Every structure is written in structure tokens, then in C-alpha cells.
Amino acid sequence: RTQKRRAFGVQKQNLEETKLFKKLFEQFNERYDKMNNDMNRIYQKPFDSPLTEDEIKILFKYFNLCGEECLYAKKGFICEEVWRAWNNGMKFFRRNPRIIVLWDKELESDSYYGLKF
Questions:
Q1: Cβ-Cβ contacts under 8 Å for 90 (sequence gap 6 or more)
Q2: CA-CA distance, 35 to 50, in Å (whole number)?
Q3: DSSP one-letter code for 109
């Protein structure tokens, strides 16, 4: 009887963790989807084009999203495969000279939950 209760407890905990993962996954993807077109527009502009105020605001939202994703991944709430895919997306945007300068400056402040590249 005790083993059954323990097994049920483990099963219930796994279900709760799965629900949390699903909720986080959906929320993060929804937030990213809302800024995806803007991020691609920023990425496609000429490299020597200075960032506008609006672009900087969009990038700060993106950086915050990335930091939150990193935090939840470190805490074990985001599975490795998903984190790897998200991190690859971050690395894609970091290849852009317009974005990396601002991002590196922001990362120096250690404001993004330990996000590092």
C-alpha cells in the first residue's frame, strides 16, 4: 500500500512537471511569435544601420525572453532539446553585428539570469 502511494505521488509529480513545462513552453513560444517578424526585420537591415529606439525596445523584450528561458532551463523546467533549439535561435540573432553589440553590452550587467554565450 505504501509503495502504491509513493508510485502515485511520483506519477502525480511527473504530471505536474509536465503541465508546468507545457505552460512555460507555450507562453515562451507565444511571446516569441509576437516579436518574430520584428526580430527578422532588425536582422535583415544593413549591418551599418544604427538601431532605432523601437528596435532597441524590441531587442530588450527579446533579451528578457531569452534570459527567462535560460533561467527556467537551468532550474530544470525546460527540457534539454527545447533549450538547445531556443539557444540555437539566440545564436542565430547574435551573428548579426547590429544585435550583438547591444546584447553584449546588456549581458555585462548580468541582468539576464546568468545567460551566457
A1: 66, 117
A2: 19
A3: T
The model's pTM is: 0.85
**Of 51, 61, 32, whose CA–CA distance to 101 is shortest?**
51
- The end-to-end CA distance of the chain, in Å, is 49
pLDDT tens per residue, range 6-64: 665 667 777 888 899 999 999 999 999 999 999 999 999 999 999 999 999 999 999 99
Q: Tell me how far apart the alpha carbons of residues 88 and 53 are, in angstroms, rounded to a whole number.
A: 26
Burial degree of 88 (CB within 10 A; 0-12, 13-18, 19+):
exposed
Count of residues for the chain? Answer: 117
**Cell digits of residue 63:** 533579451
